[in-house]
Amino acid sequence: MRQCPSCGHTITGAERFCPACGQSLVQVVWQPAPAIDATLPIAPARNSRLAIASLICGITTWILFFIPLLLAVPAIICGHLGQSAVKRGNGQLTGSGLARFGLALGYAHVALTVVALCVAIAVVAVGG
């Protein structure tokens, strides 16, 4: 048997509220909230180095246009690896957009090189 902490009425069963005053008899244990939210990463997210390398290779491919495919293939490889690293990073890595833009520049350069090569072959075949 126990007593209501508010009115002192004797409680015989496992009631949740005092039958005399209606006071809640459930003990609430107060726990302070943690000072730091443990669900968020402590370190800020950073850009993937592979995504940055993909973007740099993609831009440099178009600047050094006279050397076809020298940096387009690394831009494509780094872009794919950078995107997969961002996906596996669980929020610790960012840079999916950088990798995507490097991929686009690399693939566009490869496509333009293939078209230019086909045109050159056609010109040589027709002229020869």
Name the features:
128 residues; mainly alpha; two-stranded antiparallel sheet; 3 helices
Helix proportion range: 40-55%
Structural class by secondary-structure content: mainly alpha
Please tally the β strands and state the result.
4
SS field, number of helical segments: 3
Instruction: Sketch the topology as an H/E string, one letter per element.
Output: EEEHHEH
How far is it from the N-terminal to the C-terminal residue, by CA? 110 Å
Low-confidence stretches: none
The major beta sheet can be summarized as: 2 strands, antiparallel
Oligomer: single chain
What would the principal axes of the Cα set say about the shape? rod-shaped
Strand arrangement, major sheet: 1-2
Q: What does the radius of gyration come to? A: 34 Å
User: Quick check: average pLDDT?
Assistant: 86
* Proportion of strand residues: 5-15%
